[in-house]
Structure formats: C-alpha cells, structure tokens
Amino acid sequence: MDCEDGVAINKKDVARETIRGILDKGKPNKSRKYDWGVRANSIDSGLCEEDLKSLLTAKNLPDTVLLPKVQNCDEIKWFSDKVSSIISGNNSVNLIIYIETAMSFINLPSICKTAVDLSKNSKFRPCALVYGGDDFVASIGAIKTEENTETLYARQKLVLVAKAYNLQAIDMVYIKYKDLEGLKKQSEQGLHMGFTGKQVIHPGQVPVVQNAFLPTSSQVEWAQGLLKSFKEHQKTGKGAFTYRGSMIDMPTMKQAQNIIEIVNLAQK
Ligand SMILES: CC(=O)SCCNC(=O)CCNC(=O)[C@H](O)C(C)(C)COP(=O)(O)OP(=O)(O)OC[C@H]1O[C@@H](n2cnc3c(N)ncnc32)[C@H](O)[C@@H]1OP(=O)(O)O
Ligand SMILES: CC(=O)C(=O)O
Ligand SMILES: [Mg+2]
C-alpha cells in the first residue's frame, strides 16, 4: 500500500485514511501467510510524520514500513525515534529502506550500519534495501535502456552493501507492466546479480517475478546431488573433487546451500 509516488499530491490525505481504514479492519484472509507493507512518504517531504502517526496507531500494525528516498543516517535516527514514540507496547515493524538518489548511494554503508545498530533498542527491524531505479535515473540524469548498463554500478553496490549487513536486496520496478517477456529478462538479470527479489506494480507481474527468483527443478537436483557428494567426499578427507565435470570445493557447496535455502524458505 502506497502513500508516496503512486499517489497524487492532492490525494495524500485520502490515501493515508484509506490505508488506515484497511489496517483497522485487519487482514481478510487469516489462513494465508502474507505481510502488509505500507510505503510512507519520504522524510524530506514533510509528510512522513503524519503518515507514521496515522498508520502506526491503527488497530493492526502493518508488518512492514517502506521508507523511500533515505538519504543519510540522520533520517534513520529520525525514523527510529518516531517509531519508538508512536508504537505502543512491545510491538515493532519491519523496515525496508529505499535507496534511490546519488546521495543515498554515497551514504549507503552508514545508513545500513545505523539501521542495524539502532534496531537493537528500537521498535523496528531492518530487513531489506530496495533499489528505487526510476528515482535513481532521475537523480543522476541518466537515460534508461533495456540493458540497464547505466545503473549497473548502483545495482551491484546495493547488492554488495545489503548482503554485508545481512539485508535482502530488492531490485527495480519494470514499468512496461504488459511486457512479461521483458520483465522475465530483467528479473533474471537481477537474480544473477545477487538480488533476493524484485518489486512489482501490477498483479500480472507477480507470477513472472516469483518464477524467476525460484530455483528451477534442474538447479535443485544439481544442488541436492552436489551436497550429497560433498558430504561423502568430506568423510573420505577430500576437500576438492569433480562433480558433473566441474571442480567443487567449499564455495560451490555454499552456492548449492543457497539454492536449497531459497526453496525451503519459499515452501514455508
Ligand atoms: C517508481 C515507483 O514509485 S513504483 C511504485 C508506485 N507506483 C505504483 O504503485 C503503481 C501501481 N500500479 C498501478 O497503479 C496500476 O497497475 C497501473 C496504473 C500501472 C495500471 O492500472 P490499470 O490500468 O487499472 O490495470 P489493469 O486494468 O490491468 O488492472 C487489472 C486489475 O488489477 C488491479 N490492479 C492493478 N494494479 C494493481 C496493484 N498495484 N495492486 C493491486 N491491484 C492492482 C486493478 O485494480 C484491476 O482490478 P479489477 O479487475 O478488480 O478491476
Ligand atoms: C520504485 C521506486 O520508488 C523507484 O523506482 O523510484
Ligand atoms: Mg522512487
């Protein structure tokens, strides 16, 4: 649910009140496991405080707050203070941080470190970074291409820093939402770069992105076989061995473990 750029400037109050009403009612389908996330307005818009006061005092807290256009660690401190003063009792929310301006990228490690450190004594848990590709392209004055070479450095930096701080890395929006083949290609590009997932803006994008980020059956079969073979070779004292024509040692074993971990998480 969005209070930010998907909402016209003259409808900010309406969006906030509508979302508050939805939160008050609670999740309609309690048997299905899903999270409710709300994207507030950015702190520098001057609207964020009002968003948080309304959304975080609803009868049911959103599972996650998405904070756009985070520029520096002072904004994380601001957010930490606000959630601590607004959220009652022992409740807390997940925090997803949007990185989408040139300055955000300059300050990225300190933004993450501050979020991780402050969360130990606050009411939020940082869980992911989002690459806000459209705002970023506007911020640096680039021209968007289908290959995304103009933003390769930024996307790779986001993955690198996210993983260093044990956060998920969520890739850009694909705005040509009717072009599912293009979406598939861009999802696979993000997956290969190390992104954990991708934003969607239309229901039709959901299955394409989910499929792209789930390991294929042949990858799972390869990983299971490799892990079995790795264990057997360890017992016989062999750190390196050949599996299906490739040299395998500890790092490849870890890649196979990643595949199995994603499958296990997706099944939960
Ligand atoms: C760069 C950024 O900041 S991205 C994030 C901010 N932007 C957004 O969130 C935009 C979200 N998406 C949208 O607003 C819309 O999908 C649009 C404008 C792109 C297209 O809207 P439409 O022309 O209505 O799409 P379409 O007719 O295909 O919709 C089919 C159904 O899916 C629903 N739907 C479309 N998008 C969404 C969405 N994001 N979430 C939930 N339902 C949606 C429609 O309401 C419609 O439902 P209905 O059949 O019950 O009436
Ligand atoms: C998703 C988003 O906020 C952006 O691309 O700017
Ligand atoms: Mg944006």
Automatic annotation (TrEMBL):
Subunit record text: Homotrimer.
Compartments where found: Mitochondrion
Record-linked SUPFAM superfamilies: Phosphoenolpyruvate/pyruvate domain
Source species of the chain: Brassicogethes aeneus
Coiled-coil ranges from the UniProt annotation: none
Similarity section: Belongs to the HpcH/HpaI aldolase family. Citrate lyase beta subunit-like subfamily.
UniProt keyword Magnesium present: yes
This enzyme's EC code(s): 2.3.3.9, 3.1.2.30, 4.1.3.25
UniProtKB keywords: Acetylation, Hydrolase, Lyase, Magnesium, Metal-binding, Mitochondrion, Transferase, Transit peptide
Residues in HpcH/HpaI aldolase/citrate lyase domain copies: 1-203
The protein's name: Citramalyl-CoA lyase, mitochondrial
Major site of localization recorded for this protein: mitochondrion
Function: Mitochondrial citramalyl-CoA lyase indirectly involved in the vitamin B12 metabolism. Converts citramalyl-CoA into acetyl-CoA and pyruvate in the C5-dicarboxylate catabolism pathway. The C5-dicarboxylate catabolism pathway is required to detoxify itaconate, a vitamin B12-poisoning metabolite. Also acts as a malate synthase in vitro, converting glyoxylate and acetyl-CoA to malate. Also displays malyl-CoA thioesterase activity. Also acts as a beta-methylmalate synthase in vitro, by mediating conversion of glyoxylate and propionyl-CoA to beta-methylmalate.
GO BP terms: regulation of cobalamin metabolic process
Residues annotated for Mg(2+) binding in this entry: D135
Essential cofactor(s): Mg(2+)
